[in-house]
Amino acid sequence: MADGLRWGIIGTGWIADRFAADLEHTDSGAVVAVGSRSQETADRFADRFGISHRHPSYEELAANPEVDVVYVATPHPLHHANTLLALEAGKPVLVEKAFAMTADEAQELVDTARAKSLFLMEAMWTRFLPHIREVRRLLADGVLGELVAVFADHGQWFAKNPEHRLFAPELGGGALLDLGVYPVSFASMVLGPPSEIAALVDPAFTGVDGQVSMLFRYDSGAQAILSCTSAAQTPTTAAIVGTEGRIEIDGRFYAPSAFTVIPREGEPTRWAEPHVGNGLRHEADEVARCLREGLLESPLLPLDETVEIMATMDAVLATAPAA
Ligand SMILES: NC(=O)c1ccc[n+]([C@@H]2O[C@H](COP(=O)([O-])OP(=O)(O)OC[C@H]3O[C@@H](n4cnc5c(N)ncnc54)[C@H](OP(=O)(O)O)[C@@H]3O)[C@@H](O)[C@H]2O)c1
User: Fold this and answer.
1) Digit-coded pLDDT (tens) for 226-278
2) Which protein residue has the closest C-alpha to ligand 1 atom 7?
3) Ligand 1 centroid distance, CA of 283 (Å)
4) Which atom of ligand 1 is nearest to the CA of 15?
5) 26 in a structural domain
6) Which of 97, 168, 152 has its CA nearest to residue 310?
7) Are residues 263 and 185 in the same domain?
8) Which residues of the chain have pLDDT under 50?
């Protein structure tokens, strides 16, 4: 199942659309099936992308023997059930972020995949983007010296619609799991799990978290300063600061982007490459690579780290005053 991985998608919303479009920019796989809550939406999606298998239920999609791997693209409260469905059907799974609603849910998915020896990965697409791979290479080379701090933010403006996924409690509404997961995952990639967490969590108009500012401390002595909001567009930049210099990633740091390395002494250098597509094909390529090489998880985003990131977000939300 190497080249030409056959993808089946659960859900036909915004991100499913972009993922299917991006797969057209890679030869590592193609969407062959889609599952929706109705035949009509399955057909509409399938027509747009020339998909032959269109299922009126997620169960049918998961059971389709023509599907090598399932991509779960439903709202986060459904990730747990939808991922279990695919794993129970014997399929490897790529699960949208936030991976689950809590660390406990995430751990159950990881345990199930491991028990069944099936591949599982969080679709934290940022991790697999070319500029982030280059940043990691520079960090591994010790270019920044001893790491002192990570700064990152992710704010988007959303109209105040109580039915929107970002605001509806029953759809997993909240800025942290949707937007804040990017800076939290970025800090995790650079500094690992925090040893201490402080946060301000303020509600949006529906009561779900709307704006969150976070301060993390690490055993190394480094700190992370992170924030997210669903009320305004923020710079969405990120910086990694060390004793020998810093890396400043342009906004939107979590999407295909560019960065500048600014040494403590000497001239800055710029990294920038043209990029084709939305940036989602890189995670699909990583899934294809892992399956080809017989890996059950990606070394670039290990499952224990995904669970740890969920635990960090659990701890941040636990600091919110009771409503
Ligand atoms: N990687 C990224 O850049 C990125 C960007 C946006 C979102 N996401 C993540 O992707 C997931 C989906 O987000 P989205 O923006 O694509 O959401 P969306 O546009 O609302 O689509 C979600 C899809 O899930 C299915 N669904 C099943 N039960 C549902 C319910 N009760 N209410 C609404 N939809 C339901 C629907 O498909 P059917 O009707 O066909 O069943 C729907 O089209 C979220 O976890 C989100 O965090 C990731």
Assistant:
1) 999 999 999 999 999 999 999 999 999 999 999 999 999 999 999 999 999 99
2) 15
3) 18
4) 16
5) yes
6) 97
7) yes
8) 1-2
Q: What's the CATH number where 251 sits? A: 3.30.360.10
247 and 159 in a common domain: yes
Q: Which pLDDT score, from 0 to 100, does residue 322 have?
A: 75
The residue whose CA has the least distance to atom 40 of ligand 1 is: 36
The answer on 253 and 213 residing in a single domain is yes
Report CA(10)–ligand 1 centroid distance (Å).
9
Total domains present in the chain = 2
Give yes or no: residues 42 and 96 share one domain.
yes
How far lies 40's CA from each of 45, 47, 56, 95, 300, in Å? 9, 11, 8, 24, 37
181 and 54 in one domain?
A: no
- Ligand 1 pocket, CB under 6 A: 11-16, 36-37, 41, 73-76, 78, 96-98, 123, 125, 165, 171, 178
Residue 91 belongs to domain spanning: 5-123+280-287
Residue 202 CB partners (closer than 8 Å, separation 6+): 209, 210, 211, 212
Helix (H, G, I), strand (E, B) or coil at 277: coil
Is 116 annotated in the active site?
Answer: no
